[in-house]
Amino acid sequence: MFALVYSIIFIIGVWFLPSGMIGLLIMVVLTLAMVFFQYLISPYIIGWIYRIDWIPYDEYRRKFPHLMEAVDKVVAIQGIKPPRLGIIHDLNPNAFTYGHTKNNARIVLTEGILKYCNKEEQKSIIAHELGHIVHSDFILMTVVFAIPLILLTIARWAFYASWFTRSGSRSSRDSEEVSYLKLALIIIAVLSYAAYYVGYLISLIVSRIREYYADQHAAELTENPNALSTALVKIAYGLLIDGNIKERNSSKVRALKGLGIFDPSAAKALAVSSVGSSGTFSKDAIQAAAAWDLFNPWARYFQIFSTHPLPAKRIMRLNEQCSNYGIKPEIDFSEAKKIKEAQAGKSMTDEFIVDLTISALPKLIIVALVGISIAWFFGFIGFYNLGIFTQPTNLLLLWAVGLYVVGFGSIFKTKFKYKSGFEPKTVLDLVTNVKVSPIRTVPAILEGRVVGKGIPGYYFSEDMFFQDNTGLMYIDYQSLIPFFGNLIFALRTIKKYLGQEVRIQGWYRRGPSPYFQVDRIESKSGKMNRNYRKQATYFWAVLAFIIGLAFFYFWYVAVF
Known about the structure:
19 helices
């Protein structure tokens, strides 16, 4: 919503504001005003779009005295006002905080946190959220993310200013002054956009650092880093019972999704747990689930663009703090590399390159065709002695053939991403797969129950949360009509699946977090929905074939 309003204001500003430094200054001021306005209204929007049950302090203290102990301790030490406390009635474990300042904060937990985490882990989670409050992360991150936005405003303004300068100077094209001005504006636009991109990546780094600081605050407040570590294992990899971690060769697995304590914008986190018959955690299952975070190249790729560190990285940082309190880390990943090598060999770089190539294949071909066309238009082709492309008819033929290559490349990409051969699987089977990626998927059939929405408490969440006898998984539902179709499903259809036994056919993916994309979902009560996103991808192939055929026709008419 903010991006839409920002774009509208920018377009209006380009047309009606004065050009030059005054116009740029006004746009920068408007951008800052928009950021400040978003900062002011965002807590009220969150309270509106999430179904949160706010609980009075006396009642909260009576129900959860161990949580209020952490809150009261921080309030007394920091001298801040107690945060408002709320519960979302959803088994999808989630915890997040928001507000304007440390004296105007809200902390929200879901029933999933209260059900699946023990009291020490619950306390560590609320201590993590309190860490964000006492560190004033609301204000800090607003400022940090505002800086790249200002750079983007400068880049766009310089670009449009150069465009208007060109269009308004037709009578003085030979003027060196105008040419230098246009060149300077284009250089400013390019440099500002590059600075925006770098600034955005830096802001994500700052966000990840703030998460580490909040983890450290939780460790200091509870004097037990292991409590948050095991909570992260339960939330990120889904261990749902109490007990010391011991290694077992066979286990059952249970899973649940983490959101607020991870990345709220991703909304596709998965958890897996492994519980042996004696009630102990399976070390192998934890390390198999974490091996993707530690060794898959896709994890490093997505980490760059994430606001939260990977769970395994956070646990390793918490383990380093255990010595400060004279305790031994309960979780280690010493065998994770061996588990990864047993599944995927010593290196996964080749598979990563293949995935990237297949993902970008149609776009790469289009870029190549555009590049050749530009080179032909400016006469560059002749410098490379490629006389075959100097005739317009040959360029038409090149585009015709190229578009058919694009079409077949798009079909190949779809076949690779949406494999056939659906077989019954469990959450355990899928989550412990180290080789999976957003492109390299696992076709599967899951049977179990829908236990909640993908984003707990969010009115407009079209995604679901699924549980089988081995765990829970985030279910990604993508309508054929992206916005309105998803909205209708979120507001009407999803209610018919909540709490129902279902059979889901689809594709397991991981990127940046694990999730299961629906192809078909049906309940035992007879409700059924299809997801036609796979079929929709063929539209681009058909479009490429049609346009390619048109180019063939024009080429044939010109030549014969």
